[in-house]
Amino acid sequence: MTDIKTFRELQSEATEWRRYLHENPELDYRLENTARYVAEKLASFGINHIETRIAETGLVALIQGKGGVGPTIGLRADMDALPIVEASNKPWSSKVPGNMHACGHDGHTAMLLGAAKHLATTRNFKGTVALIFQPAEEVELPSGALKMVQEGIMDRFGISKVFGMHITPGVDIGKFSICPGPIMGSQDDFDIIVKGKGGHAAHPHRTVDPVVIGAQIVLGLQALVSRRTDPLKSLVVSITKLNAAQAYNVIPDRVEISGTVRTLEPTLRDFAELEIPAVARGIAQGFGADIEFKYMRSVPATVNHPEETKTAMSAARKLVGDSCVNDSPRVSMGGEDFSYMLEARPGAYILVGNGPTAACHNPAFDFDDDALPYGIGYWVKLVEEILGREADVCLAER
């Protein structure tokens, strides 16, 4: 049986991959260099079934076990960076001005590459491992996971179960967190245009001031959470953009308000889409104005399937022990497009500690390379957990 020492032997090489990716970040679907680099590494491991140009720059590689025919499980890593100016001051900081790996996707990719090298060498399982390298996780509509699912990767490669992973700053390296059911929230976005009557700021009585009306709408929307929903259920409505006039002495004709909705409950997505415009329109009309409204559904909640979560827990515990696996973590309201893959197939999404680093999406963030062996090891243990026992039976029969 493999233990963490086995995977630490891969750390030096995986660190080189990770830092190369960190120095050369690419955005959304424009991952030409990243995808080429990943494909070349996979081929160097002796993996001969690599399909590229899936969802533009995504790829899927297959590793067949030596135990013979069996099920196919998918392991997913996201590859894209963010449009952020890096401030980590590391020797391997981004060489691309305005782009950086601020969410650990460089580490996710390196961990799956490390697992690929180990699995391609040993192949001690029955069935097939599908390595899914996904573009555009940070893109909302359509995101990379949605596009890969829409292009039929689950049926095309016969994937029966699918698993994802993400690092977590602030959690000790070597610790994992996972739970059945929702583990991350859905994400929807909305735009409100308040249409009033502009004029001179010295004569507000001659206007229908959309700035004042917009301020009332911002406050009014908070009551949807505090007074219109069950306090034991999670709903977040955050206003993130306000655009009005550009001069001190002008009351504008319109104000633009934008925000995001996060929840774990599908019914609360429906509630928000219906009630946000109702509240905004009611307030606006009370002042003699009106609104335009647009609601954009993005990723659904990331919901772990019960049986697959048990399997993922077992794999993590066999790697690091029971005490290092938190089975009741705080659920995040951040969005994750792996949710689309979990809607298409049963599976589970696990969080792995990244130590006391800056938060994700922070300019000072950097992946901690000491976490690499744990991500690699988890993937291998997961394959052993699902496909390894079937291989043992098959090889014993031979």
UniProtKB/TrEMBL annotation:
Free-text comment on the cofactor: The Mn(2+) ion enhances activity.
UniProt-recorded name of the protein: Amidohydrolase protein
Species this protein is from: Rhizobium gallicum bv. gallicum R602sp
Domain of life from the UniProt record: Bacteria
One example GO MF annotation: N-acetyldiaminopimelate deacetylase activity
Keywords: Hydrolase, Manganese, Metal-binding, Plasmid
GO biological process entries: diaminopimelate biosynthetic process
Gene3D superfamilies: 3.30.70.360, Zn peptidases
